[in-house]
């Protein structure tokens, strides 16, 4: 299926489109009722996952048990400046509480120092601690040069991660078409690329998929699906 055909198919098949989306609430102020609402919506639309802060993993896991919706959480979030061992411990605890996907923030300082051995070690420790759970590495592309994005992608692949992800959504900017296209070009056709940060409309989502994303981190998921359904 070519890219144009894929987009046309997704536009006409809401259930398939929903599987691109990690339905997200990473607000510091998120409370129990908001997480319950997030999980209810995820079940209704059968999104790929809910992405929540670690404090909410156990609750989300309980609410989503026996469903196809996975529980995703974040590690070293949002700065990536936690120790490597601390990130691994955080990932292991999250997995023990039911997390099936881990979105970790890369060691940005090590990238700036050109210490990519340390970058790989950081990711590798989280991969090992995450057992069979998928690991997505958040590059925070707004802080990186194109060359650093390429090297960070290669480090993520070498360390055994499953995805590279553009952004936390808490930095100066989020996903761009250019960064997603560069990440896809670097990792090839079979590795995961997640776009996140600033995806608020159907047009935003389609642009990221066209650029090469096969997962989207969205807090505006319901609005995007509503656009697909022809709602204002």
SSE arrangement:
Layout: H1 3-12, H2 14-18, E1 21-25, H3 32-45, E2 49-52, H4 57-64, E3 70-75, H5 84-96, E4 101-105, H6 108-112, H7 116-129, E5 134-138, H8 146-158, E6 163-165, H9 177-187, E7 192-196, H10 202-211, E8 215-218, H11 221-228
Parallel strand pairs: 1-2, 1-8, 2-3, 3-4, 4-5, 5-6, 6-7, 7-8
Helix pairs in contact: 3-4, 5-7, 7-8, 8-9
The separation of the N and C termini measures 30 Å
The largest beta-sheet arranges its strands as 1-2-3-4-5-6-7-8
Give the low-confidence spans. none
β-strand percent reads: 15-25%
Which secondary-structure class do the elements indicate? alpha/beta
The number of distinct β-strands equals 8
Helix content: 40-55%
> Which series of helices and strands comes N to C?
HHEHEHEHEHHEHEHEHEH
Number of discrete helical segments? 11
Report the sheet with the most strands, covering strand number, pairing sense and barrel closure: 8 strands, parallel, barrel
**C-alpha-based Rg, rounded:** 17 Å
Mean pLDDT: 96
């Amino acid at each position: 299926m070519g890219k144009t055909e894929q987009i046309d198919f997704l536009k006409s098949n809401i259930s398939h489109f929903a599987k691109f989306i990690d339905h997200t609430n990473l607000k510091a102020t998120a409370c129990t009722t908001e997480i319950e609402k997030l999980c209810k919506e995820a079940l209704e639309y059968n999104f790929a996952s809910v992405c929540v802060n670690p404090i909410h993993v156990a609750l989300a896991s309980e609410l989503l048990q026996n469903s196809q919706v996975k529980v995703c959480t974040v590690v070293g979030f949002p700065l990536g400046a936690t120790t490597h061992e601390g990130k691994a411990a955080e990932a292991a605890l999250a997995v023990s509480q039911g997390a099936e996907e881990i979105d970790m923030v890369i060691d940005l300082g090590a990238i700036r120092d050109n210490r990519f051995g340390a970058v790989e070690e950081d990711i590798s420790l989280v991969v090992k601690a995450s057992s069979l759970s998928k690991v997505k590495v958040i590059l925070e592309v707004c802080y990186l040069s194109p060359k650093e994005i390429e090297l960070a992608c290669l480090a993520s692949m070498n360390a055994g991660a499953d995805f590279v992800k553009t952004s936390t959504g808490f930095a100066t900017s989020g996903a761009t078409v250019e960064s997603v296209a560069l990440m896809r070009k670097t990792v090839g056709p079979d590795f995961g690329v997640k776009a996140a940060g600033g995806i608020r409309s159907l047009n935003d989502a389609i642009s990221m998929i066209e650029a090469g994303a096969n997962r989207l981190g969205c807090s505006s998921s319901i609005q995007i699906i509503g656009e697909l359904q022809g709602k204002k």
